[in-house]
Design brief:
five-stranded antiparallel beta sheet, 16 helices, transmembrane, single chain, transmembrane helix, alpha+beta, membrane, 17% strand
């Protein structure tokens, strides 16, 4: 056994790390913690997750999707979708339709609309849940634009589904505008340079009570199997047989959860319907995750599990992973190697808490990183290497850069633009000093979690700006850049292509993006699945 005794300098680093971890969690509690006491969710934290509580293997089936241009009169395989007359852009919508042949839902906006390049988010609810993947189409010479959300790459069974499409931002600085401008320089969207440097500080989201484009009866039928492409072949959220809700009621109307103004725990309106209905979180218990592969890997993970006793079953929420590793140092023989470092702030800590519930907390540790700053990351990586001999770092630092913390920080004074985020994160991944620490160091950039539409994100107020910028539009942009950084390094750097990698968990987290109890941190039921996936990726490689 390698004795876990810190040198004097190590003890100093440890004290600093613990202090910053407590600061991180405290700020999260003060600024983001907005849980309503009478909305269920926290009793789940008291249950120790079993690795074996998963579904059986389902053999993927190859599919072909026909590429069909939607234009002109509706074809037989195209079905109209009800438009919500109360939507903030209802007067600009010409049509919404479902194209079964294309495997997509499309929205057609008239010329001169208030939001010619809106940022949209869409989801299908039924026997399973699927997010739509958006692209923008501007047929040549047409006086309208079309925005199509595809489900062709998702894992869906034939059946009926409820469709919900939301507009998040009116001003087009989302990823669809960028994708179009890349392929068509004459398009009136933003060029890559314009998109990267765009200052979205004063871009408010659309009114959350009027942001739904689809009507109350927006149901559609899918007649063929879609078995997923890439990560989406791995698993999906399916209606749970163990749910207390009647399966015969599906599909039913499902609406995105949001937090109205004046609906915090101390507000007198909290118990009223205007708060309780939009903040209801029962859907998170109606669905469970089904893996789409042989589950031998889950069984193999059991050999890494360690139960350190009942004192760790209800580990105090504000105790850090550093506290945990200090308390268990005499119970380990060191034969399982150094832990894997989860770099970030409270979202990484939430992920570690899931590892703890999976009895895998000893194989992971938190390393604090608030912003994608290369010098700070180098210091934190050196610190973690000194304390724990970490050589694998999973980095996700996109929450603070787009939160009110960046606005209140004298160094920044505003949320990070896409360009600033890209420059900082790529500077970390490409920093040669990091790899000089140890030849075995590898960096994995993890995708950033979407945040639900909490009251700070939707509050523009007298200053005519949000109080929090972590909307799906911004986080989608960050995640596009996370992927671009990794792909760029692998394509151009022979030295780093085998040391910088992507860990993309969006196929797990995004279908449940609005279920965070505190409108910030991933729900434990979702986080535990994400943790299981990450543990399998890193412990069994």
């Amino acid at each position: 056994m390698v004795p876990f005794v810190l040198p004097k300098s190590g003890r100093a680093c440890y004290s600093v790390a613990v202090a910053f971890a407590i600061l991180c969690l405290s700020l999260s509690s003060l600024n983001w913690g907005r849980i309503a006491e009478n909305i269920s969710g926290f009793d789940y934290l008291r249950k120790v997750t079993q690795l074996s509580s998963v579904h059986h293997f389902k053999e993927p089936v190859s599919i072909l999707t026909k590429n069909v241009q939607v234009d002109g009169a509706l074809a037989p395989f195209i079905h109209p979708i009800e438009i919500n007359p109360d939507s903030s852009i209802s007067s600009d919508i010409l049509d919404i339709w479902h194209d079964q042949d294309l495997g997509a839902v499309c929205v057609r906006l008239k010329s001169g609309s208030r939001c010619p390049h809106p940022s949209l988010i869409g989801r299908l609810y039924g026997s399973s849940i699927a997010m739509l993947e958006w692209s923008q189409v501007a047929p040549s010479g047409s006086p309208f634009t079309e925005h199509c959300g595809s489900y062709a790459n998702r894992w869906l069974d034939p059946g009926s589904y409820f469709l919900e499409i939301l507009i998040i931002h009116c001003n087009g600085f989302g990823t669809t505008a960028l994708a179009k401008s890349r392929s068509d320089p004459t398009h009136d969207g933003r060029s890559v340079g314009e998109w990267l440097s765009f200052d979205y500080t004063y871009e408010c989201i659309e009114d959350t009570t009027h942001n739904r484009l689809t009507g109350n009866n927006a149901f559609l039928s899918i007649s063929s199997y879609h078995n997923g492409v890439g990560d989406y072949r791995m698993g999906r959220w399916v209606f749970s047989d163990e749910s207390k809700f009647e399966s015969t009621s599906y599909p039913k109307q499902q609406l995105t959860r949001f937090q109205p103004q004046g609906c915090r725990s101390q507000d007198p309106d909290l118990s009223m319907e205007r708060c309780q209905i939009p903040m209801d979180n029962s859907r998170v218990y109606e669905y469970s995750f089904m893996w789409n592969q042989d589950q031998k890997w889950i069984e193999q993970l059991k050999k890494y599990q360690v139960d350190f006793g009942p004192q760790f079953k209800d580990y105090p929420p504000l105790k850090s992973s550093h506290d945990f590793h200090t308390e268990i140092k005499d119970m380990r023989d060191g034969s399982d190697g150094p832990p894997i470092c989860l770099m970030g702030c409270s979202h990484s800590f939430t992920l570690w808490r899931s590892m703890l519930r999976l009895n895998l907390g000893h194989r992971f540790v938190n390393a604090l990183l608030l912003y994608p700053e290369p010098d700070d990351a180098l210091f934190r990586i050196k610190q973690s290497y000194q304390l724990y001999n970490c050589t694998t770092f999973i980095i996700a630092a996109g929450q603070w850069p787009s939160s009110k913390q960046a606005w209140e920080n004298e160094k920044y004074g505003k949320p990070f633009s896409f360009q600033k985020f890209y420059k900082g994160l790529s500077g970390i991944a490409e920093n040669p000093k990091i790899y000089d620490i140890d030849p075995n160091i590898n960096i994995y950039l993890r995708t950033i979690h979407l945040n639900p539409l909490g009251d700070l994100i939707s509050d523009c107020g007298v200053e005519q700006r949000p109080k929090d910028w972590r909307s799906p539009t911004v986080i989608d942009g960050y995640n596009l850049l996370v992927k671009e950084i990794v792909e760029g390094i692998k394509a151009t750097s022979s030295k780093l292509r085998d040391r910088v990698h992507l860990i993309d968990t969006r196929f797990i987290t995004e279908p449940m993006w609005d279920t965070a109890n505190d409108f910030n941190h991933v729900h434990p039921r979702v986080s535990d699945v994400e943790a299981l996936y990450i543990a399998g990726k890193f412990l069994l490689r």
